[in-house]
Amino acid sequence: MRSPLCDRFGIEYPIFAFTPSEHVAAAVSRAGGLGVLGCVRFNETDELERTLTWLDENTDGKPYGVDIVMPMKIPTEGTSLDLGAMIPEEHKQFVDKTLLALGVPPLPEGEGREGVLGWLHSVARSHLDVALQHRPVLIANALGSPPADVVEKCHEHGIAVAALAGAAKHALSQVANGVDIIVAQGHEAGGHTGEIASMVLTPEVVDAVGPDVPVLGAGGIGSGRQVAASMALGAQGVWTGSIWLGTEEYQNLVSNKGWSTAFTRASSADTVRTRVYTGKPARLLKTRWTQAWAEEGAPEPLPMPLQNLLVAEAHNRINASDNPDVISMPIGQIVGRMNEVRPVADVMADLVSEFEETVARLDKLRA
Membrane-spanning regions, if any (predicted)? Predict the structure, then answer.
């Protein structure tokens, strides 16, 4: 399982792993892939600084990446506004009533009430500034192409830039803006995702951007067979995310006992694409919380970043409740394969061995 990206980044396998956990990212990099740390959860730059220092020291000198959330269009106003004051009262009341109906207890006074500020453009830029003081080999942007000055700054530091695309036209725009690697994220993926399924999207993006721009297939990838399928469609590697939520290392980040119960019992049909998490369409685990937002009389989700600010405390309360029936979890359709909690090294080994078995089986068909 090699592609030109392996030589470019000094990795053994072209398996890129997005994760909010530094423990998962480090384990993937040590196992021969490229762990990519999601930074949106960091409200304090000091915490991100400590985390990236930990990654520097715990990856055995192997490369890693960083993922930020930054729109290409730079906001020209609103940075001094009280965003909380822009949230309608009816939305706040709906959240309060829903949590009460679901039996979600309040948090202890003073705990977990701040929203995730990483969705704000200014905070994402601070994440980039911190990352550039460390040694990532890749900066990925979850919202497509970052602003031109960000791309230029990364290139000045010798860092490649990747961007997620849900359509071929978006990929072409990103390449025109200087993005080096396109992540073709299909409809099956967890978190922010588009309308087109991976089987259709990956070859469309590969053909659109041409042979000189590497494409990573994403969405619905959790086995070696799916890695092989993505590369057969023209991708030079894969971008994975949901599959790492079911690893032992990820449990260092979550204290919710209902977390593993929620995903190990779920089927591939137990997800929903909705705007209730951030204000943009994202695939989540289908629970009583997501269903409440789909009921008649529920308000429409607010645009990013207001929706996240609205539900931030609610998600903290839900996660602290340990109730798998209400948990709010971005996750893809691959959740149907996540039936047990395993070490990262075992997941990587299975991805590689099944890939090799698949390619060998296909080779026999040529005889």
Answer: none
Give CATH superfamily name and number for 4-74+86-107+116-364: Aldolase class I (3.20.20.70)
**Residues in CB range of 73: below 8 A, 6 or more apart:** 147
The 10s digit of each residue's pLDDT in 56-88 is 999 999 999 999 988 655 554 444 456 678 899
Tens-place pLDDT, residues 343-362: 999 999 999 999 999 999 99
Alpha carbon distance 197, 166 (integer Å): 9
Q: Can you state the angle between helices 22-30 and 45-57, rounded to 10 degrees?
A: 20
Cis bond upstream, residue 75 (ω within 30): no
Task: Give dist(CA 83, CA 87) in Å, integer.
Answer: 7
Specify the residue for token string 């956990």: 21
Neighbours of 261 (CB within 10 A): 15
Token pair listed for 365: 């068909």
Q: Are 307 and 221 in contact (CB under 8 A)?
A: no
